[in-house]
Structures are given as structure tokens and as C-alpha cells.
Amino acid sequence: MVKLAAAFQRFSIIVIMAFGIVFFIAGVLSNFQMSEELYSLDVFTLYLIGGLIGVLFVTFVLNNFFSTKWFVITLLSGAFIARFIWIFNADTQIYSDFSMLYNGAVMASNGDFSFTENSYFTKWVYQMGFVIYEAFVISLLGDHPFVLKFINVLVGTGTVGIIYLIGKSVFNELVGRVAGVLYAIYIPAIVMTSVLTNQYLATFLILSGIYLLVERFEKGKISWLWIGILFALGHIIRPIGPLVILAVGIFIMVVYVLKGNNKFTSSGKLLGILGTFFFVQMIISQAFIGAGITDYPLENRDPLWKFVVGLNHETTGTYSRKDARILSSLEGDAKEEKQKEMIEQRLSDKKEVFILAKDKFKLMWGDLDAAVNWSLYGIEAPDTKPLLFKIEKAMFTIFFLFGTVALFALFKFKESEVNPGYLFLLLLIIGYAMIHLIIEIQTRYRFFIMPSLIIVQSYGIYVIWQQSKLIKSGKKQEVHEEVRSS
Fold first, then answer.
1. CB-CB neighbours of 300 under 10 Å
2. Tens of pLDDT along 316-344?
3. CB neighbours of 183 closer than 8 A, spacing ≥ 6?
4. pLDDT in tens, 75-131
5. How far apart (Å, rounded) are the C-alpha atoms in residues 113 and 95?
6. For the chain, what are the domain ranges?
7. CB neighbour list of residue 296: distance below 8 Å, 6 or more residues apart
8. Distance CA 418, CA 480 (A)
9. Which ranges carry the Glycosyltransferase RgtA/B/C/D-like domain (predicted)?
């Protein structure tokens, strides 16, 4: 039985790694295909080469000139300054869903919850978590969008620090440093600070839970409680908890339970995380209902819509006004039946479904990040916008290139050589990519998964760096040195 469990564990890890390799290779191909369509090849190649040289230079500096103390101070100061300068200069207009959420928060801060009768909030009740967060800030500090943007700066800076800690915990100090720096200068992570989005706080909370998972799950006696709380709070701000919880379940089963060591303790902690996650959601949801804020639990009351749009061949899985018009006159069971009919019809031709999935992947993981458009909405920036797009595109392509290196390097290593936390990051990346093959896509949705992707690809940079002539002529280290030292 023990041998069977060990064999199944090895098989599961191989499958996860294989899916990871496919994801990163497909990402490389998608980025080069889209780049060829968007830019002349020589321009993009110039940015790409410049980016690669820049990454290696940054790695050299980080490896040789900073103590841990001064690195952390410099990293967080630089991340804060870059983000603050952006919100100070970018007068981003509040519009679309962000306007709906902000206006609702202003009303809620004054004790007026009539906005909850709007169909937007009766269908997507889960948005109320973020609205109440914004309302709380407004009631304390006043109705000034800049305050909320400044909190984005603080939370975004904190996220940079958490990414450094996760990279250090899962791999080593240098990987953590590279990951922290790259996220600190990643264009969408900077420019979205001026957008009143729920992505910043949710990402920070969930990443904090991930750090406790990879660093303290085995060591901490009640770490499971804080992990569950952080994941639940992150989900209440932005509903991505189910994917995270599924990845946690698979990760703990594969890494700890199948291994056989303390499997009952690991199983108990997993149940603790799940129980805490759902209990916190239930308590907050019931508190909102009891306070008269909303009549419904914090959930999606129109769950089929994302699949209707995501399987739309005409729009390649992006928002469809035509679908919205078709369903706008329907309610209740009639609407649900029509949605099911549309989904079944769009799934009927398997060949077309495969083509749709391929095209959606190419758009989701190869197209320009819409964060730049959201941030510069209402701002005349004829020179800034193209430059930001080109830099972001080069960085994003580099991430996939080094991510591919990381996966091939990790694939051949023995279990004892690396912290198994990398498997959780891979599960999260793979799951996020797969779910977006069937639901609505927007490139700004990449925001949540970018920290995990950047951490994994930073290990690829580390592997290349360890083999470079720069290291061989200076402090030569083995590829796995410090992997588990932290």
C-alpha cells in the first residue's frame, strides 16, 4: 500500500510538471505569434534582447551588492515610489464596473444601501465584499479616490514583499530577490494602482495565505487557521477562492498525505483550512444579510453567464453584447434554460471547441495586457501608452521563456532537492489557465496569477545564472545551493 501511494505520488507530480511545461511552451509560442502580429519583428526583438540583458544585469547586481537588510529596504522603497509616482501623475477616470462599485461604496458609507437593488448587485452579490471595504475606507478618510489609490500603493508594495518571501521560501534567497524586483517593476502591477480594482487587496490576502502554506504548513500548529482566514477574506474581496482551495487540496494530498509522513495531521490541517474558509465566508455573508446590506449570500447568482460568454466562438470568449441582449429580457428559470441551451450549442462541435480553446489561450496569454488601457482611460498619452505596451510585452514574453527553463530544470530534480511549494504554484497557474479556457477572458484577469508565474520563472533565471560565465569567473555556486537553506 505504501509503495502504491508513493508510485501514485510520483505519477501525480509528473502529470503536474508535464502540464506546466505545456503551459509555458504554449505561452512562449502565443507571445511570439501575437508579437509578430502587433509589432515588426526587429522592434520586438530589440526590446526582448534588451529585456534579457537587463534581467541578467539585475541578477548580477542582486547577487553581489546587497545584504538582505538593504535589499529589502531598497526593494520596498523602490516599489512604493514607482507606484506612488504613478497614482500622483495618472488621473485615471473611474468607469465601467469600477464606477458601479465606487458609487455603491459612497452610498453605503452614508448608510444608503438602495444601490443593492440594482441588477448588477443582485446577480453578482459577491461584489458587496469589496464595496463594503471601500465604504469603510471612505467613512473613515473621506470620499477621495486618491485615498483608495494610495491604499493600492501600500498593498501593492506589500505584495512585492510577500512575493520575495515566497520565492525565498520555495527556492532560495536569489530567486526571491529576482521575483520581488521583477514584480516591483512589472508594468500592470504599477499602472493598475490608479484603478479602483479589487485585485490588489484580494491578491495580497491570498498570497499571504500562500506564504503561510509553503513556509509554515508543516511547522506551525495553527497555521491552517490563518491560511483559511486569509483565503476566505481574499475570496470575499474577489471571488477566486474555489480555485485556490482546490489547488490547496490537491497539493496537500499529493505532497503530504500520499507521502505517508504525518498523513493524519496533514489531513486534519487540510480539513481545518477548508472548514475555516467556508465558516468565515458564511459568518460574513450572514452578517451582511443581518445588517440589511443585502438580501442574498455573497455569491454569484448568475453562474452560467461566464460560461455562455467564455464559449462564444464569435467573440473568442470575450464579452458579448449580443449575448447580453439575448438574455436581458429573460429572468429566473427561463433565463437559465436559455443559457444552458446556448452552452450546449456552443459545445456541440468538438472541433470548433478545440479551435476556440486554442484561440482563447493565445489571446489570454499572448495579447497585450489591458491594464494599460484601464489605467490611462480618459488620459491623453499618445507616447506613453505604446511604450508601456512594448515594455510589458517584452517582460511577459521573457517570463514565459524563463518559466520554460524553470520547468525543465525542476522536472529532472529529486524531491529532496526542492521545497515542494513550487508544485502549489504550478497547480494554481495550471488551474487558472484551464478555467479560462471555458469562461470569459480579459487580459487584465492575468493580474492575480502573475505573482505565481513570476516566482516560478525566476527560478529559470537562477538556473541560467548559475551556469553563466559571470558566476564561473566569480563566486561559483551549485545550482541547488541554498535551495532549502531558508
1. 14
2. 999 999 999 999 888 888 999 999 999 99
3. 159, 160, 163, 189, 450, 451, 454
4. 999 999 999 999 999 889 888 889 999 999 999 999 999 988 888 888 899 999 999
5. 20
6. 215-237+240-299
7. 122, 125, 289
8. 8
9. 135-280
pTM of the model: 0.92
Locate 290 and state its grid cell: 443581518
b/e code 88-118 from CB counts within 10 Å (16+ = b): eebebebeeebebbbebbbbbbeeebebbee
In the chain, the amino acid numbered 250 is I
Residues in the chain: 486
The grid coordinates listed for 445 are: 484577469
Q: Are 201 and 237 in contact (CB under 8 A)?
A: yes
